[in-house]
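Lecture notes, part 5. Sequence design as translation. It can be helpful to think of inverse folding as translation between two languages: the language of shapes and the language of residues. The source text, in C-alpha cells, appears below.
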C-alpha cells in the first residue's frame, strides 16, 4: 500500500510540473543601433585616439585627416579674391575729368545762351555748345555703365571665391573625425598613419545604453501585444542566471516570416511568426547578441 502512495505522489508531481506555465512567451537576442563612421575626406590619418571597447560621448573628436592641401587651397582662393578686389575701378577718379569737361561745357552753353538772347552772338555758337554738352553727357553715361559692369563682374568673381572658401572650410571641418552618437566602440578598422579615402569605414559604434530585444511571436500572440505596451524582459546569462528589466514594445513587423531556426516561440509548430522589437534601458550588463526572453 505504501508503494502505491509513493507512485501516486510522484505521478501527481510530474503532472503538476508538466502543467507549469512558461516564464516567457517568446525569446530572441539583444541588439543595439550600430553606426559605421566613414572618412569624409581623403588623406593621411594624422591622429586616431580610439580603441575597441571605449565608451565615447556624442560629438567627441577622435581623429584628424591631414588638412595641409585644403588649407593651402583656402590661402590661394583668398589671394585670388584680393587680386579681384585690386582690379575694381575707382569710378569717381576715372570719370572726374569727364565731369569737369561737362561742367565747363554747360557753363559755356549758358554763356552763349545769354549772348544769343542779347543778339551778341550767332545761333550756331549756341548750337555747337549744346551739342558739346550732349556729347559729354553721353560719354559720361557710357563711362559709368562700363565701369559699373566691370565692378559688378569683379564683385561676382569675389563672391564666387567666398563660396569656394566656404566649401573648402567645410572640407576642412570634415577632416576632423567625431563620434556621431554616444556608445561603445565595437570595431576599429584603421590605425593612425594610414592613408584613408573618402568613404572608407573607420570605426563602428553602438548605442549600448538603449538596447533592443528582437523576438518573434505567433499570430495567436499578436492580440496580446501592441506598440507602446510595457512588458517584462529577462536577460539570459546561462546556467539559470537571469535578470529582469522593464521593456517597451517599440516596433511590430507588418508582415510575417518563416520561423528562424534559432528562435523558439510559444508554439513551436507555427511556421509563420512576426518580429517585434522591445526597447530596454541597459545597465551595462546586457550585451549585443545575448539571449533574452519576454513575458507579454
Amino acid at each position: 500500500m505504501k508503494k502505491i502512495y509513493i507512485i501516486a505522489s510522484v505521478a501527481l508531481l510530474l503532472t503538476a510540473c508538466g502543467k507549469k506555465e512558461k516564464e516567457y512567451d517568446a525569446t530572441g537576442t539583444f541588439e543595439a543601433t550600430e553606426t559605421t563612421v566613414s572618412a569624409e575626406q581623403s588623406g593621411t590619418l594624422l591622429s586616431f585616439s580610439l580603441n575597441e571597447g571605449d565608451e565615447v560621448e556624442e560629438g567627441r573628436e577622435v581623429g584628424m585627416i591631414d588638412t595641409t592641401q585644403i588649407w593651402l587651397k583656402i590661402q590661394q582662393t583668398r589671394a585670388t579674391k584680393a587680386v579681384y578686389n585690386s582690379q575694381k575701378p575707382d569710378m569717381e577718379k576715372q570719370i572726374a575729368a569727364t565731369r569737369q569737361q561737362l561742367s565747363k561745357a554747360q557753363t559755356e552753353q549758358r554763356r552763349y545762351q545769354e549772348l544769343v538772347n542779347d543778339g551778341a552772338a550767332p545761333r550756331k555758337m549756341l548750337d555747337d555748345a549744346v551739342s558739346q554738352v550732349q556729347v559729354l553727357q553721353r560719354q559720361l553715361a557710357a563711362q559709368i555703365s562700363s565701369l559699373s559692369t566691370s565692378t559688378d563682374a569683379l564683385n561676382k568673381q569675389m563672391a564666387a571665391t567666398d563660396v569656394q572658401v566656404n566649401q573648402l572650410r567645410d572640407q576642412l571641418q570634415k577632416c576632423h573625425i567625431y563620434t556621431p552618437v554616444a556608445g561603445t566602440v565595437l570595431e576599429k578598422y584603421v590605425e593612425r598613419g594610414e592613408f584613408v579615402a573618402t568613404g572608407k569605414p573607420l570605426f563602428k559604434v553602438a548605442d549600448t545604453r538603449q538596447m533592443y530585444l528582437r523576438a518573434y511571436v505567433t499570430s495567436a500572440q499578436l492580440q496580446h501585444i501592441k506598440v507602446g505596451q510595457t512588458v517584462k524582459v529577462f536577460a539570459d546569462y546561462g546556467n539559470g542566471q537571469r535578470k529582469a528589466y522593464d521593456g517597451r514594445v517599440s516596433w511590430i513587423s507588418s508582415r510575417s516570416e518563416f520561423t528562424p531556426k534559432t528562435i523558439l516561440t510559444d508554439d513551436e509548430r507555427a511556421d509563420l511568426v512576426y518580429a517585434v522589437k522591445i526597447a530596454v534601458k541597459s545597465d551595462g550588463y546586457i550585451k549585443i547578441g545575448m539571449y533574452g526572453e519576454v513575458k507579454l
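The translated text above is only one of many valid answers, since several sequences can fold into similar shapes. The helical segments are 2-18, 68-86, 91-118, 123-174.
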